Hints:
A: 4 helices; C: 11-stranded mixed beta sheet
Amino acid sequence: MASAALKEQLKKQIIEQLNLEEVKVEDIEDSAPLFGEGGAGLDSIDALELIVLLEKHYQLNVTNPEEGKQVFYSIDTMADYIEKHKA
Amino acid sequence: MIRKASCCRFTSEGIFVNGEKRFTLNHFEEELTEVYRQLSVEYPKFYKMDLMSKVSFLGVELLKGVDSELALHREDEEVGLLFANSESSSQTDLRFEESYTRDGLPSPSLFVYTLPNIAMGEIAIRNKWYGAHMFSVFPNFAAAYFADYGRLMLKDGAKRVVGGWVDVREQPDAAFFVLDSSLLENREEALQVLNQVYSNH
Amino acid sequence: MKVPVYIGAESIVSSLGRSAASNYDQLCKGISGIALEPGIGWKESDVYLSRIRDLPAVGPFASLLSASLEELSAGWDQALLTSSDTQVIISSTKGELSDDLLNPFHAVIDGLINRFGLVHRPLLLSNACISGVLAINLAARMIGEGMCRHVVVLGADVISPFVLYGFQSLYAVSDVPCRPFDQDRKGVTLGDGCGRVVLSVEKNSFSETPALYLGGGDANDANHISGPSRTGEGLVRAVAKSLRNAGVDTQEIGCLNAHGTGTLYNDEMEAIAFNRLGLETIPLNSLKGYWGHTLGAAGLIETALCMQVLRNGIIPASIGFENPGTSKPLNVVIRPEELKKDIILKTASGFGGGNAALLITRS
C-alpha cells in the first residue's frame, strides 16, 4: 500500500534519529516487529523518539504511547499510518 | 612506597591507561566510537549514550581490562560508584535545550541524560553492579572527595569503589580509578596518588 | 552506628507554606498545593503544577537555600553553622538551571559560603530523585565515622521549562493532579520544593526534641536508565540494607512513606518491591499528591514530613488514591490515621536506576 520509497526513507530516518549506528537500511524488514528482541530491538525511549520523528518529518501527532504501540509495530504499519493521515 | 591505583585518564591528548597512551583523541566524540569498536565490546546501547556516559563507559571498560579483580565483579553489590565533575550534565543539557529551542521538539532520548548520575547508571547496567553510587559537583578535581567518601563506601560494604571524574564539555577531562581499602587506609598517601592520577598528563 | 545520630530542625517550603508544621497541618486536612497553570507547558499546554508562591524570578534556587539557612535558628543552634565541626550537604538535580544552564551550582554555593561563613564547602549531591534521601544517609555516615559532628542537609529544586518540557517529551506528566498507586494514575505532577533537616550528635543543639536516625542504604537496579526495574531489584536491596544497618524488623515499622510518583511503572515497581520485602501491610502513603514531585527536594521535604508524623502521631492520607492500581497489594492510607509503631521507613527511586531508603524513630 505505502510506497517502497517511503519505507526506505522511514528506515533511514529511524536509524538516524534513534542512533542505531550498527543497523543498516537492509537490516530492517518491512513487516518485522520493531520492538523487542531481534530486528531493530527498540525500547521505550525509542518509542518516544518515534513520536518525535513522526511530528518532525511528517507533521503527524501520535498523541500517546498507547496509540503508538499499534502505529509503531513495524515499518509497514508506520508507513501505512503516514499514508493514511497525509493531507 | 606510594601505592598505585589502576587508572584511566582522558585528556585532549588521548586516553591513557595506567600511564600509558592507548588512543589519541583529536576529534573527541567521533573518535570515541572508534575506541569502542577497537575494544570489541558488543554493546550497541553505547551509540545511544550521551558524551559523558560514553566516556564513563569506555573508561570503566578500560579499567576492567587492567584490573582483574574489578573485572571479576558481576551481578553483585560489592562495587561502589563514586563520581563527580565540575560541569554536571551541562554538555547534554545544552543539546536538550537546543532540541526544543532550535530543532523544534524536546527530545526524550536527550532528556533522559540531563542528569549527571545517569553515566553511573549506564555502568551499573553494563556490569550488573547493584551497589551504592553517588555523584557530586565541584569546581575542580577534588581528591579528598574520592578519598573520604570512597572510604565511607568501603566501610558501608563495598569491596572496591570505582571513582570517576568526568568533564566533557570543552576538552575531554576525565579520570577513572579503582579505590580499595589498602589504598584508602592512609589518607595523605591516597590524596597523593589521586592527585597524581589526575595531574600526570 | 555506635553513636546515636539525631535528626531534627526540619523545615519544608512548598506550595502549601513555609514551615514544616504548617505543611503538616494542611496535609492532615487533605489540602493539596497542586493547581492548574494555563499555557505553561510545551505548545502552551495547561499543566498541573505545585508552585511556591513569590519565588524571585532571578535566583530562585539560591534564595530558597539562603532562606533555609537563615531560618535555621528556629530549630537549631545556628552558631554551630560556622563551626568546623559542621558540614552542609545540598541535594539538587538542576540547581539554578534557568539562570545559568552551564553553571547551575558553583556560584550559588560560593554565595552561601560567603554569606554564612561556612568553613567547609557544601557538598552538592546530584543523583536524580534519590538525592535527598542519599544526602541524609551520607550525613549520618559522616557523623558515624567522626568526620564531623553536625550536618545541615538542604534539598531544593525549582520547576523550569527545561524540566517540564523534558517530562512532557516522556509523556510522563499527568493531565490531572497525580494519583500515586491509583488504578487511574497517569503520571507525575512537578513541584517546587525546599527541605531541610539537621543531623547531629548533640541532642541539645535542637530547639525541639529531635528524632533518631536508625539507618539507611542505597542500591542500583542495574536495569534501565529511566525505567524502573520490573522486579524492584534496587529498591529491595536498598530497603534490605537499611533494615540491616538499623537492626530493624519489617514488622516494627509503623509507616512507609513511599516515593509514589504516580507513573504506571514507578508505583507498580514499588508495590512489587514492598511485597517482596513483606511490607504490604504497613500503612503506606505517598506525599506527591500534595506537593507534586519536587525532584532534588523530595527526599528532604518528605523525610521532614515523616519527622512531623513522629512528633504528632498522625499519618496523613495518600491523597489522590481511590482504587488499588498495582498488581501487588499495599495498605494505602486513605484517611489520616494514628501512627501505631514509632519507626518510619522512607524510600526514594530515581532516574539512573537509583534507589535509597532510610529509617527514623522517636528519640
